[in-house]
Amino acid sequence: MLKRRKKRVDEDHRYIFISHHDEGVGQWDFSKRQLLAIVGLCIAIVGSGLFFTTDYLTKVLYQAKLKSLKRNYNQLSLTLTDLQRQMDLLSTHVVDIEEKDRALRTYANLPQIDKDVRKLGIGGMEVAKPVKLDNVSPNAESKLLNLEMNVDMLTRKVKLELASYSDIYNKVIKESDRVKSMPSIRPVQGGYLNSGFGYRNDPFTQKPRFHYGQDITVSSGSKVYAPADGVVKYAARQSGFGKVIKIGHGYGYRSIFAHLSKFHVKWGQKVKRGDLIGQTGNTGRSAGPHLHYEIHRNGVPQNPLDYFFSGYIK
Questions:
Q1: Would 284 be classed as within a structural domain?
Q2: Which of 56, 57, 156, 213 is 20 to 30 A from residue 118's alpha carbon, by CA?
Q3: In terms of domains, do 193 and 159 share one?
Q4: Residue span of the structural domain in which 196 resides
């Protein structure tokens, strides 16, 4: 009997809410079931609000993260492109260094470096296996790998050139007297390198003929300088060459300057590298003002371009 009465009391239990305001008093009463239903409804509404709010915020944060990643990727891509451009520029400088190295090895009477060895270089760092980077596209990874390989190749070539220049330096120090006698500067400033060493069509007969020097097109009257120490062996006219100067430099080297307009040296005169010896012109068998320049070593004509080591003396 007591249990039934208690259960009924619980079922008849009601909750009264009273609200006081200026217009009067408000009163609401709810049974236990009604109150639980209202509380449950409120929880459901709040839960739904939290769910949709969370979903919305998640989408907003995702879009913001995506924009940030795209922005970072674009910046990374631009950085990699700029680095690659700089690497290409450095590679161009290395090619220029390699050309000068060939000339200097001729200058120092050293054998040329094998083209395959020059292509691979020496030493360098080991190329690591590519590492998967988070949040980086395959395209960016590929650029990074290419950049790493280019850096490695450039490092190898630079090490090779450093070793080569060390050999050249040591050889030059040992043979400083011979170096003074080796033609090593351009005999005129500026000008246009015209007909070079080797076969060409003769400008007068249009027939193939070997050209033993290098023509440099310059204005008539341009100053001509001695490319190395030596003694003037000839300074006079010579058939098709017009006014010619020939200098004996010792150690088998001789230089020839043709089509001159004026002499500033005479037979038997000693000259130093960079001394003014004459002026260009158009004398002899010439199609226009220019300097015909030859270098001979032990009586064998050489390509003068292989002896342009240090630019101009003045």
A1: yes
A2: 213
A3: no
A4: 186-307
Residue with tokens 């630019």: 311
Asked if 163 and 190 sit in the same domain, the reply is no
| Predicted local distance difference test score (pLDDT) of residue 125 | 47
Closest C-alpha among 240, 250, 235, 184 to residue 212: 240
Residue 189 buriedness (CB in 10 A; 0-12 / 13-18 / 19+)? middle
Angle at 100 between CA 97 and CA 102, to 5 degrees: 110
Residue ending a domain, among 146, 174, 202, is 174
- The region, left, alpha or beta by phi > 0 then psi within -120 to 50, assigned to residue 61 is alpha
Number of separate domains in the chain = 2
Residue 107: both structure tokens together? 């200058």
Q: Is pTM, for the whole model, over 0.70?
A: no
311 contact partners, CB below 8 Å, separation of at least 6: 185, 186
Q: What angle do CA 73, 79, 82 make, to 5 degrees?
A: 140
Mean pLDDT for each consecutive 10-residue tract of the chain (314 residues)? 48 62 65 74 78 72 70 70 73 75 73 71 52 55 69 75 75 74 89 79 69 89 95 93 94 94 95 95 87 94 84 46
DSSP string, 254-265: EEEEEEEEEES-
Contacts by 264-269 with C-beta closer than 8 Å and gap 24+? 265/232, 265/235, 266/232, 266/235, 267/232, 267/233, 267/234, 267/235, 267/236, 268/231, 268/232, 269/231, 269/232
Residue 21 lies in a domain: yes
Q: Are residues 28 and 161 in the same domain?
A: yes
Strand segments (E) across the chain: 14-21, 24-31, 192-193, 198-201, 208-211, 214-217, 223-225, 230-238, 242-250, 253-263, 270-271, 276-280, 291-297, 300-302
Q: Is 137 in the same domain as 210?
A: no
Do 9 and 142 fall within a single domain? yes
**Of the residues 145, 174, 203, the one at which a domain ends:** 174
Nearest 5 degrees, angle CA 260-CA 261-CA 266? 75
